[in-house]
Every structure is written in structure tokens, then in C-alpha cells.
Specification:
The complex is a heterodimer of chains A (245) and B (68).
Chain A: H1 2-8, H2 12-44, H3 58-85, H4 88-120, H5 128-149, H6 153-167, H7 170-180, H8 200-232, H9 237-244
Helix pairs in contact in A: 2-8, 3-4, 3-6, 3-8, 4-5, 4-8, 5-6, 5-7
Chain B: H1 10-67
The chains are: A mainly alpha (245), B mainly alpha (68).
């Protein structure tokens, strides 16, 4: 039963229709999560002892940075699935991920710079964490540019997929950069294995924002993917009917 | 440490949240605009396809008449 559901995901027509049904629910959950997280982070969470109210930038910077890496991993995994099992939908997922991932990376870099100026005294330094995150942004741009520069669809799929898979090496570099090299950037506040380094009054709004950002990613992925499916399947009868309706 | 004054630089906080809201709005608007453009492009694509098909059919008809 579970496998039937999985294999049906590979059908563009089925996915296109089911995504339209899921969209309003996911958008609703995302809106509730984001509003709760922003209100909690901006007005309810206490100021930090050292950084004061500036720590409120954390509620958007940290989820954006997590998502910038998470989206890349999703993109690389779907590229690998596309290459191994020749699944069209997997290539579409990978292609729909790159503009979203680029936006989260941009947000992480800008909010990081705005947090850095009053705390470090500078908007930007070429240290390991910041530079590897900037490389991630270029990888997203490269992925989109490469796909759009090749006219033949199958070649474009393969080339973009290989770039996505090769670029995944940057993800552990970003994650461990603060441990491997001396950096202005602080080490991770949240870890899967250790007790969180931040107080629960700040941890809860942060967790809500992380979950809401992930929901936002899914909410965005569906319309991007539906557009990509329309373009990709343009010669299919059902797409023609959908466009003309 | 007792008289430490935390830096209350709200302009940086508001700027961060403004960038966040603008980025999110742009990300929401892009697929909506793209969908409209795409539907328009595809309508033109189907029209061109139909015209090409009609031309080919007429050409085949003409040729078959010539042969007869």
C-alpha cells in the first residue's frame, strides 16, 4: 500500500492534482506557525543578557540558515533519485528547489550581516562559515543557470543533477566550519545529541519558526512544482485541457 | 558585568524582519505570476502546434490530389 502511494508520486498528473488539494491546508498551517513565531520572537521572548533585543534576529536567521542547507540536501537527493531511477518528477522537484533554496540562503546571509554589524562591528568577513554559505548561494544560481542554458531537456536534467550532487559536499563544510576553523560566527546553539545551549523561553519560539519555515518551504515547493510540471508535460493531453480550461 | 548595557539596536531588528517579509512576499508572488505567464505561453504554443498540424494536413491533401 505504502509503495503504491510512493510510485504514484512519480506521476506528474496525479501529483499536480493532489498538490492542488494539499496547498490550502499547508498554507494555513504555515501562516499560523509564522504569525505565532514572529509575535513570540519579537514581543514575548525575553531579551538576551549580552545581546539584548538583537537576539530577536535569531528567529529568522537560524531557520533561514537551516533551510538553506536542508533545501540543498532535498535537491541533491531528488537529483540522485532522478539519475538512478530516471524519475521525471524527481528532476522537477530538484529544479523547483533551487530558487527557493537561493531565497533562504539570501535571507540567511542578509539577516546574518544585519546581526553582525552591531555585534561583531562588521557586516561581512570572509571567514569559513560566511564564505561557505555564500558559495551555497552561488551553487543555487549555478544550478538554475546550468539547467536553463541547455535546450535539450534530458541533458539539462542530467547536468543540473550532477552539479547538485557534487555541490552537496559544501553542506558538511558549512555545518562544521565553526568547529574546524576559527570563526567570528558562534558555534551551533541547537544539536541533536546535546542539551540546547539556549533557554527554553527562547528555544520554543525558535523551534516554532524552524518548523514554520519548513512548512513554508513545502507550501512554496507545491506551486513551483506545479508550474514546472505544466511546462514539462506541455505535450500531454491533460495539460492542454488544463491550460485551455 | 552589573552595569552592562545591552545594545538595543532596533533598526537592525526591523531591517531583518523587513527583509524576511519582503523575501517571503516575493517568493509567494513569483509562482503566481509565472503561472499566468506560463498559461499564456502554453496557449500560444498550442495555437502554433495546431497551425503547423493544419498546414501539414493541407500539404498532404494537395500532394495526394496532384498524384491523382
Amino acid at each position: 500500500m505504502a509503495w503504491t502511494w510512493f510510485f504514484r508520486l512519480g506521476s506528474p498528473k496525479w501529483f499536480y492534482q493532489i498538490a492542488a488539494r494539499w496547498q490550502p491546508w499547508i498554507w494555513g498551517l504555515t501562516a499560523i506557525g509564522l504569525i505565532t513565531g514572529v509575535v513570540w520572537g519579537l514581543w514575548i521572548a525575553p531579551p538576551d543578557y549580552y545581546q539584548g533585543d538583537l537576539q530577536r534576529i535569531m528567529y529568522i536567521h537560524v531557520p533561514a540558515a537551516y533551510l538553506s542547507m536542508f533545501v540543498y540536501v532535498v535537491m541533491a537527493v531528488s537529483s540522485a533519485i532522478g539519475l538512478i531511477w530516471r524519475m521525471k518528477m524527481a528532476f522537477s522537484v530538484a529544479m523547483s528547489c533551487s530558487p527557493i533554496g537561493a531565497a533562504f540562503t539570501f535571507l540567511a546571509l542578509v539577516t546574518g550581516a544585519l546581526w553582525g554589524k552591531p555585534t561583531w562591528g562588521t557586516y561581512w568577513v570572509f571567514d569559513a562559515r560566511l564564505t561557505s554559505e555564500l558559495i551555497l548561494l552561488f551553487l543555487y544560481f549555478g544550478h538554475m543557470a546550468l539547467f536553463n542554458s541547455i535546450h535539450e531537456r534530458k541533458t539539462a536534467d542530467k547536468a543540473a543533477a550532477i552539479l547538485a550532487i557534487v555541490g552537496v559536499v559544501n553542506i558538511p563544510i558549512i555545518h562544521f566550519s565553526v568547529e574546524w576553523w576559527n570563526s567570528l560566527h558562534q558555534s551551533a546553539s541547537l544539536s541533536k545529541l546535546e542539551k540546547p545551549a539556549i533557554d527554553s523561553s527562547m528555544l520554543w519560539p525558535l523551534l516554532i519558526m524552524i518548523v514554520s519555515f519548513k512548512l513554508f518551504f513545502v507550501s512554496l515547493l507545491l506551486p513551483y512544482l506545479r508550474n514546472h510540471i505544466l511546462w514539462r508535460e506541455r505535450d500531454a493531453k491533460w495539460v492542454e485541457e488544463e491550460v485551455k480550461s | 558585568m552589573g552595569d552592562y548595557l545591552p545594545p538595543d539596536r532596533w533598526e537592525f531588528i526591523w531591517a531583518s524582519y523587513a527583509v524576511f517579509i519582503v523575501t517571503f512576499i516575493v517568493m509567494i508572488v513569483i509562482p503566481i505570476v509565472r503561472r499566468k505567464q506560463l498559461k499564456q505561453e502554453l496557449k500560444q504554443y498550442y495555437q502554433r502546434k495546431q497551425l503547423l498540424q493544419n498546414d501539414t494536413e493541407q500539404e498532404t491533401e494537395k500532394n495526394s490530389k496532384l498524384v491523382e
